[in-house]
Amino acid sequence: MNPIHGLYAITPDVADTAELSRLVRLALQGGASILQYRNKTAAAGLRLQHARALRELTREFGATFIVNDDAQLAAQVDADGVHLGGEDGSVAAARALLGNARIVGVSCYNRVALAHEAVRQGADYVAFGAFFPSSVKPDAVQANVQMLTAARSELDVPIVAIGGITQQNGAALIAAGADALAVITALWAAPDIEASAQGFSTLFSRTRQ
Ligand SMILES: Cc1ncc(COP(=O)(O)OP(=O)(O)O)c(N)n1
Ligand SMILES: Cc1ncsc1CCOP(=O)(O)O
Ligand SMILES: [Mg+2]
């Protein structure tokens, strides 16, 4: 099975490791198949503690564990891979740390040409977005369904969609070719995180791909 398929949960900004683990467990119970550890503010020691805890938890559930931005941290905690944006270093540098068996995902914003280049450099998946307004990244570049459709017809690697995705607007992205939906707010701000994860996961069995 493609390890990049289904609900791709990205961690909320929660500093306390036990509380972060409690929330993530709910998402995994609800069926999140990929977890990305994304934290822009914690100190290195706390990030290591978080990443170690989440590595253990994702193993328990058989979920794919990706670290955002930091290939070194990914290697240190034996994560399944790393996610790189335009300012996060090259695929080659990540490969040098992680080897060929790990996953390297690359942000391509709204540019299919960037995705071709990422694949040429050895990316295992590409991400496009933001598809909808995002309170986490209000200034994010806007992507649209037409470019996703074009990307799907041109690319063989898994495609992740991100940015303001909800259970309501996510189905159209899956129908257009997204293999995974990366979500922050609609998952963690939901009144029932497990039910929200379940709802997102169900979209993948309902929507023709
Ligand atoms: C799955 C996924 N897609 C896109 C991003 C955004 O990456 P980037 O542009 O590097 O921005 P930051 O998340 O680092 O602020 C992502 N993290 N995950
Ligand atoms: C990291 C990132 N990159 C583009 S939008 C975004 C944030 C996604 O969060 P949300 O699902 O809350 O819009
Ligand atoms: Mg980044």
From TrEMBL:
Pathway: Cofactor biosynthesis; thiamine diphosphate biosynthesis; thiamine phosphate from 4-amino-2-methyl-5-diphosphomethylpyrimidine and 4-methyl-5-(2-phosphoethyl)-thiazole: step 1/1. Mg(2+) binds at residues 69, 88. Keywords: Magnesium, Metal-binding, Thiamine biosynthesis, Transferase. SUPFAM superfamilies: Thiamin phosphate synthase. Residues 7-187 form the Thiamine phosphate synthase/TenI domain. It comes from the Bacteria. Binds 1 Mg(2+) ion per subunit. One of its GO terms (molecular function) is thiamine-phosphate diphosphorylase activity. Pfam families: TMP-TENI. It is an enzyme of class 2 (transferase). The keyword Magnesium applies. Condenses 4-methyl-5-(beta-hydroxyethyl)thiazole monophosphate (THZ-P) and 2-methyl-4-amino-5-hydroxymethyl pyrimidine pyrophosphate (HMP-PP) to form thiamine monophosphate (TMP). This is Thiamine-phosphate synthase.
